[in-house]
Amino acid sequence: xxxxxxxxxxxxxxxxxxxxxxxxxxxxxxxxxxxxxxxxxxxxxxxxxxxxxxxxxxxxxxxxxxxxxxxxxxxxxxxxxxxxxxxxxxxxxxxxxxxxxxxxxxxxxxxxxxxxxxxxxxxxxxxxxxxxxxxxxxxxxxxxxxxxxxxxxxxxxxxxxxxxxxxxxxxxxxxxxxxxxxxxxxxxxxxxxxxxxxxxxxxxxxxxxxxxxxxxxxxxxxxxxxxxxxxxxxxxxxxxxxxxxxxxxxxxxxxxxxxxxxxxxxxxxxxxxxxxxxxxxxxxxxxxxxxxxxxxxxxxxxxxxxxxxxxxxxxxxxxxxxxxxxxxxxxxxxxxxxxxxxxxxxxxxxxxxxxxxxxxxxxxxxxxxxxxxxxxxxxxxxxxxxxxxxxxxxxxxxxxxxxxxxxxxxxxxxxxxxxxxxxxxxxxxxxxxxxxxxxxxxxxxxxxxxxxxxxxxxxxxxxxxxxxxxxxxxxxxxxxxxxxxxxxxxxxxxxxxxxxxxxxxxxxxxxxxxxxxxxx
Length: 520
Prior knowledge:
The protein is of the alpha+beta class. Helices cover about 30% and strands about 20% of the residues.
């Protein structure tokens, strides 16, 4: 028996409160902002639920911690059983859901069964497909049975969704949720549409007591409005990847009234390039795009050096990714020569290349309300035009945009990798799901079936050397096929007034550690 070691619409904003009264309130309430409401906060479901808020209410069996380790959460110990596919968890005693229901093995089983009842919805996550069932060995011990070995099991149990736990009293027979009730340090107290979500400290939380009593999350959809609210003292904190544009962040960094910080790289900002759609089904076109876009200029002039440039699908500090791969050097003349060699010519007086009477044009898709995506798309459009490719900008609402990701109706489309603890295994696992842009982007590759087969094998394999070699083949193949254009490595940015004290970064991109703010 292998014993696993424990590892460690814009709201009306209130007038600011000045002086000692404001400082006193800051110790009790933090005013934050987010572009949308927290959502219905079902722990097993997705959009419109916001992951930062799901993590405030719901907890996992094991927790991901900075540096790539795992620590106890609702489970205190765990072990892989001799069959190599079943995991036994000893549950933390004395934990109750915020409605008073005990957290025990029966609660774990009820939640796992609710997830499995909706298995197709979770097809992106390999662990859900591999779970055979859960059983209570005794009131405080649970066994998770898998169909076979799966090395990332604990990492995927640490994800913010879907394998977290709601009170069985709130789970309906159809899998829906009567009210959002978890074991976490916060409870949802109030939602006022178009204005805010209010979270209150869970008085019966089993862990360390948060210093703050309330988190008021104002719905502020526009980054300029968020900056003005920070200036006016109407919100205390901006935290996230794109909550403020780069120029505004630099302005706050130069203002002595504010504290700013940039996290280490968390994930990759990229565009998927469609190998199954004209004209990017041609490798020479994809390679010319990779050579013809000035990544360094994007980072300097659009991102304003708030994110480091990315040359690979994953940062090299993730497991199995330190392969020494490098993007082709920006070289406009070489990109043009590559297109010429492939038969793409510029007719006299034309700006867009043609071959066999067809223009070299593609749809460059982004979320219309995302100002940063729009700015990057416009810069890429300009670079593509300089080598004779027309990039038709298509900015749409989030729902339509996501529909394009699922259907493959794009030439290039924005996306991010998921960061720790998803990268590389879970992100690559999702490449096999047709509902993902990654699947659609790879669908035209001659070796797509081989890619999917190898992903399946690497996730199930137990031999470390074989796993590393399989990741090398997969990542090298995707890199050489130029189905991704990495832009930068995503970072979280923090801005707050100095009197708030220290605001730490969470262990993952979506984890905002409100419970650790104000602890000194």
